[in-house]
């Protein structure tokens, strides 16, 4: 089959060229056909009167002045000329492309693709077009050694080889007709080489549906399998002991905490395998609910394990469980432990004298043998892939699984995105917690902010100061963390210890700096966004975020959640001079509410940043063309129809769904 042939087999391609394509994950001819452009440049000529300021467009006109090249600085130059479109004269500039002068002839028509500056009636050119006939040109993600031109050449070669005719339809005809979707071959061709924008949009709609539909079908099948699993543990916990423990707590559970706990306890008792996501805003009290679930397992004579991403968080949870259950045998398991302590912990886990285990990835190492593991909890679940969860299941006799995340996702989206899990939501804050006061200031007011910060530090407070970048970037003219650190040292002098933490540091170095901050060896921590989720520093009551408009709402909210962990009043100061309305709306939204769910909904509405509630962090899957937020309507319809299909027990033997069973396994890489 041509589709399965290596790229090197295509006409005009050899092994050396084909090797470069592997950087993009392209190995065989089929990969090329299914490697879609992420956008199109519209190369249809436009009148300058229909352009908006800053728009990229093709402008054609007659060259009315000769091309002039001015040199300045090392290897820097500017090519400029004027062209006439109708009665309008347009100034055109190209930077560092002097060779383009050879393509320009006085009095002849020229096509320029560039950025329009309405105030100056000028264009900053990007490309000179030999002829303006290609209305649309695909733009692909490329890698070093693979240019747009060479990629398009390879894709054209794949089409010319006739491989497209071998591509089989993977959406049942009943759905193609119902949703008026293009056939697969036609859609794949139109994704790369559409006749016009309308055809491309139809192709895009079809491919998005295909991606989201198979994603949902997999989730629904998984969910059905999980529900059907009678080989889960029926954990016969002691309800009376749990009630006593709850009444002995120094605070009252919120209604949202109680209902989440009830859902978890019902799952534990059911005998079906639990696969539940516990979702709650920063500080909403997820940890106490997880701890009570672990206690429930203990009352049934079973062990439970809590896995977290870092040693500092493991230590924090360990101390919290010790305080909560002083009579139980709780152990910590991390890679940094002394061998003698580790051996004792492993021995206790294996012989059953240990009741609860807290740790990092060490919990799933071969050396760990559990006596009777009944419940596994993972904190910030996105950090742990399917394989790690599978290892856990094999370590016990299919223990129940509870995952926790502090990324607030609108309930509807959570249910859709985590379709294979049941979702519990804690959307209330514990009583008595002071809301974090959030203020937005301009860069010019920074000195005033720092003077105010000095008074807070004098009262014993600690502060985080966040910078979005590690090093200078011309593209984003931001103050980097190093310069910011130096600036603060210069401002505060020897009055306080200021530490710097950034992503280039090794993990143990970062953990040491964080530990020092927690133990008040430093008063100010300057950091990029590597501050660990969930670390409690009770005296850290001030969060200053520089260039705050560069962050998405979710990231800002997560950062704000690092303060306000104690009983003292906390503050979050957003330093930003936003250049557009979306940036301003983000700043305003942050000042108006501290509710992560409200902000997540707002993020859904804005859809501005591409960083919708930290997609990459929150375990929400990413797709090649579909966007789980932008295409929410398609996602929801895909979920509905997939759920309907899977609800029929005999769907896998029904001829009308035959194509689905053939293709289902090929789409299984969800993690």
From TrEMBL:
It catalyses: Couples ATP hydrolysis with the unwinding of duplex DNA by translocating in the 3'-5' direction; ATP + H2O = ADP + phosphate + H(+). InterPro entries: ATP-dep_DNA_helicase_RecG, DEAD/DEAH_box_helicase_dom, Helicase_ATP-bd, Helicase_C-like, NA-bd_OB-fold, P-loop_NTPase, RecG/Mfd, RecG_dom3_C. Keywords: ATP-binding, DNA damage, DNA recombination, DNA repair, DNA-binding, Helicase, Hydrolase, Isomerase, Nucleotide-binding. SUPFAM superfamilies: Nucleic acid-binding proteins, P-loop containing nucleoside triphosphate hydrolases. Its EC number is 5.6.2.4. NCBIfam families: PRK10917.1-3, PRK10917.2-2, recG. Plays a critical role in recombination and DNA repair. Helps process Holliday junction intermediates to mature products by catalyzing branch migration. Has replication fork regression activity, unwinds stalled or blocked replication forks to make a HJ that can be resolved. Has a DNA unwinding activity characteristic of a DNA helicase with 3'-5' polarity. This is ATP-dependent DNA helicase RecG. The gene is recG.
